[in-house]
Amino acid sequence: MTNIKGAIFDVDGTMLDSMHVWENVAENYLKSQGGVPHPDLNEALSKMGGHQIPAYFREEYGVTGTEEEIHAGINALLEDFYLNEASLKAGVVEVLEMYYNHGIKMCVATATDRSLIEPALQRCGIAKYFGRIFTCPEERTSKSRPDIYITAANFLGTEIGDTLVFEDALYAVKSAKQAGFPVVGVYDTSAEDHQDKIRALVDYYVKSFVDFMFE
């Protein structure tokens, strides 16, 4: 990795041990609105950008309210966790400090709303390492497409081939690789069934940031 000049970090499941909090949030929100969640709800949502979910809930489940109201209702179920509980995975601070000391530019690309991610990163003491936080809701995209990574690399001013993307989800790994980014696959229990596919796609694979060495 001697040519690496920039790094783009996912948050949930990559830097934060947080994917478990998402397991039932959509189901709980729909139930609170009188909906009956389909068995494949989480799978259907997994590849959507945050901006697409309100329309899906309205069309598929008849949820009423504006996009902002639906976003706010979902975030209300997550806010306490991100503001007070979400914790870093082991070794994250050490890797970020190492990259900072080597002059590698860093930013965040996340599918989660800024109102949740920003305070979590600040509370965990790592917000200072990132030049900017890019979110799928604000960029009106999802990680099923590489757009957010390209936007982040443009901000960093680094070439795609010189910019590492850290991701834990298979569909996001596929998007980043499709655009030509070198990718570090980070293990998370939420993607247990996809680990073989992730390993086959990524340039580097780590069970933990503790195992990640600067080369």
List the helices and strands and how they pair.
Elements: E1 6-9, E2 16-17, H1 25-32, H2 41-46, H3 53-61, H4 67-84, E3 87-88, H5 92-101, E4 105-110, H6 114-123, E5 133-135, H7 136-139, H8 147-156, E6 163-167, H9 170-178, E7 183-186, H10 195-201, E8 204-206
Parallel strand pairs: 1-4, 1-6, 4-5, 6-7, 7-8
Antiparallel strand pairs: 2-3
Helix pairs in contact: 4-6, 9-10
Explain what the structure shows.
The chain has 215 residues and is an alpha/beta fold. 42% of the residues lie in helices and 13% in strands. The chain is built from 10 helices and 8 strands. The strands form 2 sheets. Strands 5-4-1-6-7-8 form a 6-stranded parallel β-sheet, sandwiched between helices. A two-stranded antiparallel sheet has the order 2-3. The mean pLDDT is 92.
Percent in strands: 5-15%
Report the total helices.
10
Given the C-alpha coordinates, what overall shape results?
globular
Strand sequence of the main sheet, in spatial order?
A: 5-4-1-6-7-8
Rg result: 17 Å
Supply the helix-strand structural class: alpha/beta
